[in-house]
Specification:
Keywords: Membrane, Transferase, Transmembrane, Transmembrane helix. Helix content is about 55%, strand content about 10%. It is α/β, with parallel strands linked by helices and about 550 residues long. The chain has three domains: about 190 residues, Glycogen Phosphorylase B (Rossmann fold), CATH 3.40.50; about 100 residues, no CATH class; about 210 residues, Glycogen Phosphorylase B (Rossmann fold). Helix 18 links the parallel strand 11 and strand 12. The longest helix has about 30 residues.
Length: about 550
């Protein structure tokens, strides 16, 4: 049987770590499913800055290197390499060679200056000579006063020196008139995604990189059709070969005010990119009927015949915390999970509390998600605080987002004194994620909008943890049995209903687990190889110009 080649197009931003993103886990599961096909190979084209991260993602998921070809431009742009070098320097605590060299030179200069002054004082023969020495000294001080702020500012800019308090006060006064500029530079360096100038610079860099990628794509004559796993990149539609674009969701259009308040120009540009990508697209895949009809057909006027619905396969985590070769595998696995959780606790937003936390068997609930407006975090926090204060809940709440990047969550936690009860563990490894799920008494997902049935359900149940979730169309589409909906779902717009469902689930944990495991056993019959096969059916159809792909159902 001849080998068929299809392409995957990725163009994520330099700062994105796919190992900690839902899209990254989806991509890894997809590629792993594809690796089981002996008659199909995928060629993945990505920016130069993503190649290493993608390779690390696939390595962490155990995907053989020979099953996938990764192609990218050879070198990262110079401006990106300089910025990454700056960030790397900031991480170092030890002084650099440059600082050591400068310290040596300054010490030699001070010695030489001292010797010169002492020699002149000893050698002076008249008052005029003393006055001339004072003039030299004043001139030298004037030169130092003029150039020292520039030198110090440069050193601060590279993070090479730290100033004492008095020096910082002086510098603040000297540079107060330059406050706007320094603030702008600070934002650009520390939070480049939030600076309009840096965004424009990145867009130019991205445009140049996409042109290089397009040349690489055009050279892949063996590839019959190309697939983009998301709709962020309108440049994908410049590919002349048949194209298939996945539209998981368009949450930016569902929560425009919240996203705008969080990211401003950045999210506006992302929304515009998604709009252009969909409007200039050819063929589409989505994970649910709800997204097909309510988003693509109704909002973007895409023809229904151009959209194929392919449901997710379950995401399972049990293999990451399964132990072998011990007499009591259950207890050994549990102990291993506590070790992983202890490691994860070091990533807590409240490091002072987490580092001294000695309770090795505390109870907690768990919600694994990035922090975004559609994730409904404030409703969850309101429900949790009510249970904690009024129903005397003894559980902590562990989240996996970065509260420093989501001010409303950070503010709520601080204002309600929840710093020691709500722990944000950002940047978990897949093993740590699995351990959190396994040790949790309950997994919770309050999200208002998802592209498909959230991974929470199967991820939690794969390690025997029950789940409660928001009642939204994509979850009702998969979990469609009335009895499971009654015990699993809550109204995501009503924090009191959420609190009631959480409290009931904790009190009836074993009953809920038995009920949900029966549904889980049915869901896991669908594999990621099934998902890949259905994608390949569509890719075959569009590459053969056999008309619009017919709808594929799970």
């Amino acid at each position: 049987m001849p080998m068929k080649y299809y392409g995957i197009y990725l163009a994520y931003a330099p700062s994105l770590d796919l190992r900690h993103e839902g899209l990254g886990r989806y991509l890894a599961a997809f590629v792993k499913g594809a690796s089981l096909r002996e008659d199909v190979r995928f060629v993945l084209v990505c920016p130069s800055w993503s190649r290493q991260g993608i390779a690390e993602l696939f390595a962490s998921e155990g995907i053989p290197e020979e099953k996938l070809e990764i192609v990218s431009p050879a070198k990262k742009p110079l401006v990106l390499r300089v910025y990454e070098a700056y960030l790397e320097r900031k991480k170092r605590n030890n002084k650099s060679r440059l600082v050591q060299w400068m310290n040596t030179k300054i010490a030699k200069f001070k010695t030489a200056l001292s010797n010169h002054v002492e020699h002149r004082l000893v050698a002076t023969q008249s008052v005029l000579d003393v006055l001339w020495l004072l003039v030299e000294g004043l001139a030298a001080l004037a030169v130092i006063a003029i150039i020292s702020p520039v030198i110090i500012a440069i050193l601060f800019g590279f993070g090479l020196v730290k100033a004492p308090k008095i020096a910082r006060r002086v510098l603040r006064r000297v540079f107060r008139r330059f406050g706007v500029v320094s603030s702008r530079v600070g934002v650009a360096v520390e939070e480049p995604k939030d600076d309009a100038f840096v965004l424009r610079l990145y867009k130019r860099m991205e445009s140049i990189e996409s042109e290089k990628m397009l040349k690489l794509i055009n050279a892949q004559k063996k590839v019959k059709a190309w697939y983009s796993p998301t709709a962020f990149w309108p440049e994908f539609n410049k590919i002349s070969a048949p194209r298939l674009m996945c539209v998981p969701d368009v949450v930016l259009s569902d929560f425009p005010v919240e996203f705008s308040a969080l990211g401003g120009d950045r999210y506006m540009q992302t929304f515009e990119s998604v709009r252009r990508a969909i409007q200039t697209g050819q063929n589409f895949i989505t994970y649910s009927e709800a997204i097909k009809w309510e988003t693509l057909v109704d909002q973007y006027s895409v023809k229904p015949s151009d959209v194929t619905v392919i449901h997710h396969a379950p995401n399972m985590l049990h293999k990451w915390v399964t132990t072998r070769g011990f007499a009591d595998l259950v207890e050994t696995s549990k102990n291993y999970c506590w070790v992983l959780l202890s490691s994860a606790m070091r990533k807590s937003s409240n490091r002072h509390y987490a580092s001294g936390f000695k309770n090795s068997s505390f109870k907690f609930m768990f919600y694994a998600s990035q922090f975004r407006p559609n994730k409904n975090l404030l409703m969850l926090l309101k429900a949790y605080e009510y249970l904690l204060r009024n129903r005397f809940l003894s559980h902590k709440l562990i989240l996996t987002g970065d509260s420093s990047k989501f001010p409303v969550v950070k503010k709520f936690i601080a204002e309600h004194g929840l710093q020691n009860d709500v722990l944000c563990l950002h940047g978990l490894s897949i093993q740590e994620l699995a351990a959190c799920y396994k040790l949790a008494d309950l997994a919770v997902n309050p999200s208002l909008s998802e592209g498909g049935c959230p991974f929470t359900f199967t991820e939690a149940l794969s390690v025997d943890t029950p789940v409660v979730m928001a009642r939204i169309p994509v979850t009702e589409e998969i979990l469609n049995q009335p009895e499971i909906q009654d015990t699993t779902f809550f109204d995501p717009y009503d924090w009191e209903d959420m609190a009631r469902r959480i409290e009931w689930a904790l009190l009836h944990r074993e009953e809920l687990l038995v009920q949900q495991k029966a549904i889980y056993e049915r869901l896991i019959q669908r594999t990621w190889t099934d998902v890949v096969n259905e994608h390949i059916t569509v890719l075959d159809a569009i590459s053969a110009e056999a008309g619009n792909p017919s709808e594929v159902h799970s």
